[in-house]
Amino acid sequence: MKTTNTGFEIKPEQRQSWQSIAMVWAGGMICVPCLMVGGVLSQGGLSIGQIVVSILIGYGLICAYMICIGMQACDTGLPVSVMAAGALGEKGSKYVISLILAIACIGWFGIQSATCGAAFASMVAGMLGIGTAGPVMTAVCTLIWGIIMLATACFGFKGLKWLNYIAVPLLVIVCIYGVVASFISNDGASVLAAYAPAQSAGLVFGISMTVASFALGGVISADYCRFAKSRRDVVKSSIIGVIPAGLFMLLMGAVMSIVTGQYDISAILASLGVPVIGVIALVLATWTTNVTNAYSGGLALSNLLGFDESRFKVTTAVAGGAGTVLAAIGLLNMFQSFLSLMSAIIPPLAGVIIAAYWVIGKGKRENFELKKGLSGPGLAAYLAGAFIACITGGTFAAFPVLTTAAPWLNLPFFVGPINGIAVSFIIYIILAKLIKKGGTQ
């Protein structure tokens, strides 16, 4: 590998089993947002068969680019924020990609902490008999759970591994219990048998929603796949960790939405008279997903500030702490559209990373190098892919002032993030080969 020591490479003794990595992915999939996406699919009029096909295709697409990035991370031992220097140059990786990843991960950590804190505050208020939780109680609960989640993230991969070993099986049991109980109380078998939507939003809608639920996770997969012992382990951990858990959660969300009219497992369990179990399920589901945001945000922040991984606990604490404080004081509600925009523009990074390593570098570790400065082809290809992802994915629709002035900024087509990955992949190959042909570096 044509690179100097970056301080982020994984040592041989740090490598983990594929089962450990798969559990991290399963923990990331078992969350309330996935239940929500399943509910949206059923509300979109998709049949159960269409829902299953959408999930399998959507997560299949994610696993395809996730595996390519993950195998490169396994080869190089680098997180995505550093590995991106092979395509965008060290300055592009440090000042563009690391900044975007850090902001996105910090923001989503805060939003998840706020969701968890609000649910826990409501439960505490109910137990104390004071009715609705006030803003102070909600803020305190948000801070408490943000700190707890952050402490887990600061333990690094080992902390994530043990959390998911404990939480994932419990969450599966709770979700199954919720579905079975809601079936019994709502005559779910009859409701499900009679489910025959008159109109369907179609497979493209279903695939788009499925991809959106884990598009960012597929890119930051390098942060965890770098711990794999082999390329084969990356493939096994990605497929087995993502697809079964994703299929289970989205189907649970769809079925619960059809039978009860809502997808939120905590609300369903509360309606069944077991609110404490419902909140525990929501807390655990948020916890297993949210620690990955803090960990990846910390790694990106380390690269942005010029630190090596030895100081990742400090940067992870800063990243998670910033997100938690912003959530506790309510400021993140103002930035959700902005965070959604960044979640749309991050996936096209996969296109340039894959093209640089697997096409230009022929998938050989010895051909990989961290380019100095800023790589013009990499940055141009990435920006073009991100722009196409936003246009075709409807991202700019969240900013009416833009789409009113320029309607062509909102031209939905297939799946925005996948379109962006394809465009950045193709453009990078073309530009890299043109420059190589011209004899320029």
UniProtKB/TrEMBL annotation:
Identify the Gene3D superfamilies for this entry: Hydantoin permease
Instruction: Indicate the transmembrane segments per the record.
Output: 21-42, 48-74, 95-121, 133-155, 162-184, 204-225, 237-259, 265-291, 312-332, 338-359, 379-399, 411-431
Q: What is its main location?
A: membrane
Q: Where in the cell is it found?
A: Membrane
- Keyword Transmembrane assigned: yes
GO molecular function annotations of the record: cytosine transmembrane transporter activity
Q: Does the keyword Transmembrane apply?
A: yes
InterPro entries from the UniProt entry: CodB, Pur-cyt_permease
Membrane topology term reads: Multi-pass membrane protein
Task: Please provide the record's keywords in A-Z order.
Answer: Membrane, Transmembrane, Transmembrane helix
Q: GO cellular component terms?
A: plasma membrane
Q: Which domain of life is it from?
A: Bacteria
Say which family it is in: Belongs to the purine-cytosine permease (2.A.39) family.
Q: What is this protein called?
A: Cytosine permease
Question: What is the species of this protein?
Answer: Wansuia hejianensis
